[in-house]
């Protein structure tokens, strides 16, 4: 790269809102790194056609320490002079078996917490450490971390213990990290943002839940039947617009539907 590029790191970019965000982020002026279980040939073709720098990793985010080390090493290989700004978007999440916690298979419970909470914490740690080193060496660019939360992190729901816990933890972790960054003269800005209700594979999974073990199933059926779900593309647009707000980071926990 001969001119500074905006750097964005995005997890969960292979489907749903994550894929929609990746498509909208593609630009000749942006270096986009996507971490997902699968690499998208379609996304790569779109990037090539647009002349947009794109790096895709097939990365199991349940391997949290491995993901952190990989990101740290990659960021250390970059030249800050070629980066105009740096952004991390922790979007990936997993809904395990829907039902009471005692019916959730142990491996699914562990995976949901690793992908939904531990991975964002580990990746944020790697991102903040690397970009703080840039800033301390005189790099002038802004640093932002956007964690994709959920209303379920702020409102309890039966049969959704692991997912609710992961998102609630993500909110509170963001608050803590924002306090840490506020101690630095040029600290990063962080927000944990609920994106609203979106017509994604997760919604399909919720609508397919067993009504006996998931008393709120009809609520999700009604959302679709009444046309109250956002498209992944529309939700992605609103989420990415949040990053451009002048007040980004002033409230570390927010909802895309906030004024």
Count of individual beta strands: 7
N→C terminal distance? 38 Å
Structural class: alpha/beta
**Beta-strand percent range:** 15-25%
Biggest beta-sheet profile: 7 strands, parallel
What Rg, in angstroms, do the CA atoms define?
18 Å
Structure description:
By secondary structure, the chain is of the alpha/beta class. The protein has helices at 16-25, 41-50, 64-77, 106-136, 161-181, 201-207, 217-225, 232-243; strands at residues 5-11, 30-36, 54-58, 83-90, 143-148, 189-194, 253-255. Strands 3-2-1-4-5-6-7 form a seven-stranded parallel β-sheet, sandwiched between helices. Helix 1 packs across helix 8, helix 3 (64-77) packs parallel to helix 4 (106-136) and helix 4 runs parallel beside helix 5. The model has no long low-confidence stretch (mean pLDDT 92).
How would you summarize this macromolecular structure in one to three sentences?
The chain has 259 residues and is an alpha/beta fold. It has eight helices and seven strands.
What would the keywords be for this entry?
single chain; about 260 residues; alpha/beta; seven-stranded parallel β-sheet; 8 helices; about 15% strand; globular
Give the topology:
Layout: E1 5-11, H1 16-25, E2 30-36, H2 41-50, E3 54-58, H3 64-77, E4 83-90, H4 106-136, E5 143-148, H5 161-181, E6 189-194, H6 201-207, H7 217-225, H8 232-243, E7 253-255
Parallel strand pairs: 1-2, 1-4, 2-3, 4-5, 5-6, 6-7
Helix pairs in contact: 1-8, 3-4, 4-5
């Amino acid at each position: 790269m001969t001119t500074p590029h905006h750097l964005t790191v995005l997890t969960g970019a292979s489907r749903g809102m994550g894929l929609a965000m990746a498509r909208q982020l593609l630009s000749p002026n942006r270096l986009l790194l996507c971490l997902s279980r699968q690499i998208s040939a379609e996304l790569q073709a779109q990037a090539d056609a647009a002349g947009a720098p794109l790096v895709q990793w097939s990365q199991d985010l349940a391997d949290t320490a491995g993901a952190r080390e990989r990101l740290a090493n990659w960021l250390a290989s970059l030249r800050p002079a070629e980066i105009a700004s740096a952004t991390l978007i922790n979007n990936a999440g997993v809904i395990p078996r829907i039902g009471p916690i005692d019916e959730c298979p142990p491996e699914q419970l562990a995976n949901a917490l690793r992908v939904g909470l531990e991975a964002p914490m580990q990746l944020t740690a790697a991102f903040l450490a690397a970009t703080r080193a840039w800033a301390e060496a005189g790099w002038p660019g802004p640093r932002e971390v956007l964690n994709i939360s959920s209303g379920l992190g702020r409102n309890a729901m039966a049969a959704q213990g692991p997912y609710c816990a992961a998102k609630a933890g993500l909110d509170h972790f963001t608050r803590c990290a924002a306090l840490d960054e506020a101690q630095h003269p040029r600290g990063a800005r962080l927000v944990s943002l609920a994106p609203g209700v979106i017509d994604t594979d997760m919604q399909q999974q919720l609508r397919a839940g067993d009504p006996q073990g998931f008393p709120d199933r009809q609520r999700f059926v009604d959302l679709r039947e009444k046309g109250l779900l956002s498209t992944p593309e529309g939700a992605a647009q609103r989420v990415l617009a949040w990053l451009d707000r002048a007040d980004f980071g002033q409230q570390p926990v927010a909802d895309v539907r906030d004024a």
